[in-house]
Write a structure and sequence with these properties.
Number of helices: 17
Strand order of the largest sheet: 5-7-6
Length: 425
């Protein structure tokens, strides 16, 4: 059984995915992942793991599957996966955050309908990378093909590359070979996958043979897996979720992530799910939307029940922002009081003085963290205020109690309310 076949049989989702559902692909493989110079010491299992991490990583590069699930997909032991992840961490390809979550660093975030540019070019994870025929090739042949397909992106129509044969071998060569004869032999073998013109000193790589492109590509699962993971964390019953509903939720998260970054978007997303579970009436409305068969949704010119899911969840996310801000302001007050108490007892005696000095330093660090979060929240609100000032006007009684970083938005809301009153008069 090939790796791709194993992957299909070990899907993380316990329910059936309907055929024909339009995929969304937000996280793509970074071209640097396919640089032949970085593949010199990669075993096949290690490179397969890199491809898998790029396929399942989500917002900010977070890998939503646990190591046990990674091992199951790879058909190996958790011990081997841990060893490989340690190697990737040393090379800077993965990292762990303070909470112990795994992040993959070789990804490109691409939004739907985004215009391609030099900044968001990405490498496709073609299915033939994992087929038995390609994996049985000489490693240098594999690396040459991966380099030009993934790093140089010669599958893009009209894109081609020239190369010098003497750049392929030797101590500084692209491949692990020593002579020009070996280099030409690699080019000949790689021509099974790539259209290559070979000359005395140069070669030209033109495109990937259509046979291999027609095998298809492995699409990103990251956003779906990430949403599933967060829902499960908040004790949603995930066995009966509609896949289409999951994508509508992911669509809102994607928008938040694109505008405001990983940390803020994740905080608000978690707060929104917590609020849904806390409010029985709200949770029942949401449950009725997401616990259905994919075929049951009405989508026509008059009604689109899928869009209603994303619209509803977006409104919950926006409400969660306000609750998040209130919680931050309360946290800031607690830290301020702790710092004040430490400062008032700073000079009681030497031992107490040293302890209180440490408390003050810790409190100041916490203040800065909360202040930065409030400042980011404020910038997000200013951005959205221009689109929907009425939402902020309706909640001004709560917003006006928030601490100093939330300042400019208060003035904007006051101006808007004043203007409304003048128009009424």
């Amino acid at each position: 059984m090939s790796f791709s076949e194993k992957k299909a049989k070990t899907s993380y989702f316990p329910y059936h995915f309907s055929v024909g559902f339009k995929e969304r692909h937000t996280m793509k493989h970074h071209p640097d992942l396919f640089d032949a110079r970085t593949l010199h010491n990669d075993t096949r299992l290690l490179f397969k793991l890199k491809l898998l991490l790029g396929t399942i990583c989500a917002y900010g590069g977070e890998v939503p599957l646990p190591i046990t699930a990674l091992a199951k997909r790879m058909g190996t032991s958790t011990y081997r996966i841990r060893i490989l992840l340690n190697k990737l961490e040393f090379e800077g390809i993965v990292h762990y955050n303070d909470s112990g979550n795994l992040f993959f660093n070789r990804y490109v975030f691409v939004r739907d309908q985004a215009e391609p540019s030099q900044e968001n070019l990405y490498a496709k994870n073609f299915a033939f990378f994992n087929c038995d025929e390609f994996l049985s090739e000489d490693r240098n042949v594999q690396r040459f093909v991966l380099h030009y397909v993934g790093k140089e992106l010669i599958y893009i129509p009209g894109n081609f590359r020239w190369g010098y044969i003497n750049d392929l071998y030797g101590p500084t060569g692209l491949l692990n070979i020593r002579t020009p004869k070996e280099a030409k032999n690699i080019l000949i073998q790689a021509s099974k996958y790539l259209k290559i013109k070979i000359h005395t000193e140069n070669y030209q790589v033109l495109h990937v043979h259509q046979k291999w492109i027609d095998m298809g590509e492995v699409y990103s699962e990251g956003a779906e897996l990430w949403v599933f993971k967060q829902l499960k964390k908040h004790r949603f019953c995930c066995d009966f979720l509609s896949r289409k509903a999951v994508w509508q939720i992911a669509k809102v998260m994607e928008d938040y992530y694109a505008k405001f970054g990983y940390e803020y978007a994740t905080e608000i997303f978690d707060t929104a799910l917590f609020n849904i579970q806390l409010n029985k009436m709200r949770s029942q409305t949401f449950f009725n939307m997401i616990y259905r068969e994919d075929s049951e949704y009405i989508v026509n010119d008059d009604k689109n029940e899928l869009d209603e899911i994303s619209a509803y969840f977006r409104s919950v996310m926006e409400s969660a922002e306000l609750k998040y801000a209130v919680q931050l302001s309360m946290d800031l007050e607690v830290v301020h009081q702790k710092k004040h108490m430490a400062e008032t007892q700073l000079f009681v005696n030497d031992a107490l003085s040293e302890l209180n000095q440490d408390l003050i330093v810790t409190a100041e660090e916490q203040q800065r963290e909360i202040w930065d979060k409030l400042r980011l929240l404020h910038n997000c609100w200013l951005s959205r205020f221009r689109q929907n000032p009425e939402w902020f006007a309706q909640r001004y009684y709560q917003i006006k109690t928030l601490p100093a970083p939330i300042l400019e938005i208060k003035l904007e809301i006051e101006k808007f309310i004043s203007k409304q009153k003048n128009n009424v008069v």
